[in-house]
Amino acid sequence: MATDQAHIARITAALANIRGITCVVLGGSRAVGGATTTSDIDIGVYYEPDILDLHALNQAVTALDDTHRVDLLASPGAWGNWVNGGAWLHMDGTAVDILLRDRTRVLQACIEAQQGTLHAHYQPGHPHAFMNVMYAGELAVCRVLWSDDETLVTQKMALQKYPVALQNAMIAFFGFEAAFSAGLAEKYAKSGDTYYVRAHIMRSIGALNQVLCGLNRQYCINEKRATARIAMYPIRPLDYKKRVDALVCCPRDTDACAALSTLIREVSELCDAHTGSLAVV
Q1: CATH number of 4-158
Q2: Which 3 state secondary structure label does DSSP give 25?
Q3: What is the C-alpha separation between 166 and 210, in angstroms, rounded?
Q4: Are 35 and 145 in contact (CB under 8 A)?
Q5: Where are the domains of the chain?
Q6: Which CATH architecture best describes the domain 164-274?
Q7: What is d(CA 200, CA 97) in angstroms, rounded to the nearest whole number?
Q8: What is the pLDDT of residues 59-109, one digit of tens each?
């Protein structure tokens, strides 16, 4: 059985010279650390949309797959507008996720990250939102396996320093959302409309996660395991993950709202101490 490094080398060789592909990268936990023996291999494929050879890419993916399944490739747009295509396959039983990224849109997102321009989008698989600047974060933290794209690599280097404008925007944008959503949850906590209340509580927690990522100048590229990552950041409320987990499982809406309000106030104090201000419920 081949090693993961051998799988990654084989994937890179198979994708590198397909027309329209400009860069192949390793992403996810295997790029940033924290991977386990069961972690997927996440491969980012940056492409030129007008010339990408989808047929050749589909053939390459089929050849890499353990059972050589056909039509594994989801073309751009099939999975949504942001996580917009790719393939799920297995190599010696190891799950491999190939994710397509339109390089033109990624480069625009890099500019927006440097400017602190944020916009949120609905995307299956992202319970809070997919942020435009997640594209920039992915590029910043990935490990380049092969590239014929000097512009993309230059942008990656520029993003190694977390932009101050992005930090300010993350705190302001999501600080407002955390407080606003928590306020709505509290307003209706005694109404018996538990779905509505809990949905706002989850939005508020998602926003707090983004605030804490920005405060620590860490790119948030996925909501998965976000609270576990934040638990390792130097600037955070004490026992943040444990308290979020308890809050989510709290049986009474009113008690959950009270616990959330306390967390928001603590994050506000951290923001005041380290940078600017955060709206408070």
Answers
A1: 3.30.460.10
A2: strand
A3: 11
A4: no
A5: 4-158, 164-274
A6: Up-down Bundle (1.20)
A7: 31
A8: 999 999 999 999 999 999 999 999 989 999 999 999 999 999 999 999 999
